[in-house]
Amino acid sequence: MKVLIAGGGTGGHLMPALAIADALRTIEPHxxxxxxxxxxxxxxxxxxxxxxxxxxxPLEPFYRAQWWRNARWLxxxxxxxxxxxxxxxxxxxxxVVSTGGYAAGPVVWRAQRRGIxxxxxxxxxxxxxxxxxxxRRARHIYLGWREAETRLHPGRNTRVFAYGNPIRxxxxxxxxxxxxxxQVGISVSGPCVLVxxxxxxxxxxxxxxxxxxxxxLFEGISLLWGTGSPNAARLSRYAVPGKIVVQGFFDPIAxxxxxxxxxxxxxxxxxxxxxxxxxxxxxxxxxATAAADHQTFNARAMADAGAAILLPxxxxxxxGLGRLVSTLVTNRERLASMSQAARARGQPDAARDIARxxxxxxxxx
Length: 365
Fold this sequence. Notes:
Elements: E1 2-6, H1 11-27, E2 32-38, H2 43-46, E3 54-57, H3 72-91, E4 95-98, H4 105-113, E5 118-122, H5 129-134, E6 140-143, E7 159-161, H6 177-184, E8 192-196, H7 203-214, E9 222-226, H8 232-235, E10 244-247, H9 254-259, E11 262-265, H10 269-278, E12 282-284, H11 294-304, E13 308-310, H12 318-329, H13 332-344, H14 350-362
Parallel strand pairs: 1-2, 1-4, 2-3, 4-5, 5-6, 6-7, 8-9, 8-11, 9-10, 11-12, 12-13
């Protein structure tokens, strides 16, 4: 059985693809999985270190605000379609899966035109453009949030499943936290906080953290800081051996999750799925410009459940963030309560459920 999984551009679309690939290999050890992404996405850094064959195509994002930049597609389209056709001819997949982003659309659309069974995995409560475009011809749609179904128009033969978002689930017998702290580079005692703003980083979050460090607002706290790949070199001057680790993108992120007492992050759907599966308390700073403000919706749901604190982007500042983090990490009872609430919302088996559905597409009864 050969499955092609297309998705990427950002970690929010690439990580689901990797989680599904892992689950497919677990339930079908002889399955052939090929990952397809963009030459300019985060996948060009991540995929060379993964155990799967992959192809990177000359895919470009669609720009909504700066629409004139889409003129590049006039020159790119023919070359891209030839590359996609050559890929499908050479690989002959039995199923093609989209995990969204601009790296998925043309590949899955072309597969649909050829009659290859396709599936679409949508992470957010407000479906992305790629999912809305592909949903009518898809055989299966896998939703991270049931609410997304009301915004889709599936075809007559399309089946919709609300499995949750696919992540690489935590190992219940994982390595001791003290070992993980040393593995990620933390050697001092005291609470540890993981901060990240996605694979590309967050300018505002990075700025608040940098200012807080300059004002010495995180005294007694060790920090794992995922700055986003484009910002790592510039912010590396804040690193302190054994205490402050500055890294562009944590891959794998499991050691950082296990080491951290508290997470400060954006509120993307995949991040929240991981926080719930790991049972991690969090401070969530939703991206104000996210489509349909879906990150605020995500963060509010977590806050209402008692699993997180919602910190609006408009209120993000070094002083307030420093006080909030310092207060939380010293309140072990509050952290334990938030952790329990997060874990209650987790769906750690989503990747396995999706993989089984993909197998049913490749091998219909």
